C-alpha cells in the first residue's frame, strides 16, 4: 500500500501523450512560451490567448449551424409515391406524440439541449477569459461543461442516420436535406472544439480571471 507522501508526489506527474514519459506538471508556463517533452520534444503546453479565440470561433460557427441542423429537414424519403421530409425537431415531436416519452426525453437532452448548453458555456468562458472580464461563474461554468461533455451524443445520432439510410436504401428513394449538411458541420465543429480545448490552460486562466 502506497504512503500518503508517495501518492501526493505522483499526483504532480503527467504522462507525455506521445512517448509516455512522466513529467512534473507543477510548473506554470507563461503565455507565449512553450513546454516540451524532454525526450520526444512533443509540445505539452503553449499558453496563448489565441487558443481561447480559436475555441470561440469554432463554437460560434457551430452555433450558427445549430438551428438549421435542428429545424431543417435532414432527410427526404419517397416510398410508394409518398414523399416525407423529417427534421430532428419533427422526430422529437413524433416521439412525444406517439407516447415514447422516455426516448423523447433522452433525445431532447442528448441531441438538442446538451450541445446547445455546451456551446453557450464555452462562449461565456472564452469571451470572459479573452477580454479579461472578471466573473464569479467561470469555474462553475467550466465544471458544468466538463460534465455535459460526457452526455453529448451528436456522433451517435449521426451514426443512426447512416444506419437508417443503409436499411432504407433498397425500399425508398432517399435525398439528403439541408439540415443534414448543417448537422455534419455542427458535428465537425463540436469535435474540433473538443480537440482545440486545452483544459489545463483553461483552468489556469480561470484561476487568473475568476473572482
Structure, described:
There is one protein chain. The protein is mainly alpha-helical and 211 residues long. It has 2 domains: 1-46, no CATH class; 48-209, no CATH class. The protein is 61% helix and 12% strand. The protein has a 3-stranded antiparallel sheet.
Which radius of gyration do the C-alpha atoms yield? 22 Å
Mean pLDDT: 80
Number of E-type strands? 7
Low-confidence stretches: 1-8
Q: Bin the helical content.
A: 55-70%
Biggest beta sheet summary? 3 strands, antiparallel
Shape: elongated
Instruction: State which percent range the strand residues make up.
Output: 5-15%
> Structural class given helices, strands, pairing?
mainly alpha
H and E order: HEEEEHEEHHHHEHH
Widest sheet: strand ordering = 6-5-7
How many helices does DSSP assign?
8
N/C terminus separation: 39 Å
Number of domains: 2
Keywords:
mainly alpha, 2 domains, 211 residues, three-stranded antiparallel β-sheet, single chain, 12% strand, two-stranded antiparallel ribbon, disordered N terminus, elongated
Reconstruct the topology from this structure.
Elements (H helix, E strand, L loop, with lengths): L3 H8 L1 E3 L6 E3 L10 E2 L6 E3 L3 H23 L3 E5 L2 E5 L1 H10 L3 H30 L7 H12 L4 H15 L4 E4 L1 H19 L2 H11 L2
Antiparallel strand pairs: 1-2, 3-4, 5-6, 5-7
Helix pairs in contact: 2-4, 2-7, 3-4, 4-5
Amino acid at each position: 500500500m502506497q504512503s500518503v507522501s508517495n501518492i501526493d508526489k505522483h499526483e504532480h506527474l503527467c504522462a507525455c501523450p506521445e512517448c509516455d514519459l512522466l513529467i512534473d506538471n507543477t510548473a506554470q508556463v507563461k503565455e507565449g512560451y512553450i513546454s516540451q517533452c524532454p525526450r520526444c520534444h512533443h509540445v505539452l503546453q503553449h499558453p496563448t490567448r489565441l487558443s481561447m479565440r480559436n475555441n470561440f470561433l469554432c463554437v460560434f460557427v457551430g452555433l450558427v449551424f445549430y438551428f438549421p441542423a435542428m429545424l431543417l429537414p435532414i432527410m427526404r424519403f419517397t416510398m410508394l409515391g409518398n414523399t416525407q421530409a423529417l427534421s430532428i425537431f419533427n422526430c422529437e415531436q413524433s416521439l412525444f406524440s406517439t407516447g415514447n416519452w422516455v426516448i423523447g426525453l433522452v433525445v431532447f437532452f442528448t441531441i438538442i439541449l446538451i450541445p446547445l448548453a455546451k456551446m453557450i458555456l464555452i462562449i461565456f468562458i472564452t469571451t470572459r477569459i479573452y477580454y479579461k472580464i472578471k466573473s464569479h461563474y467561470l469555474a462553475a461554468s467550466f465544471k458544468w461543461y466538463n460534465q455535459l461533455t460526457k452526455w453529448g451524443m451528436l456522433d451517435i445520432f449521426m451514426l443512426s442516420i447512416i444506419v437508417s439510410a443503409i436499411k432504407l436504401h433498397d425500399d425508398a428513394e432517399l435525398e439528403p436535406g439541408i439540415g443534414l449538411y448543417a448537422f455534419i458541420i455542427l458535428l465537425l465543429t463540436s469535435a474540433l472544439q473538443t480537440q482545440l480545448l486545452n483544459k489545463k490552460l483553461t483552468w489556469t486562466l480561470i484561476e487568473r480571471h475568476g473572482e
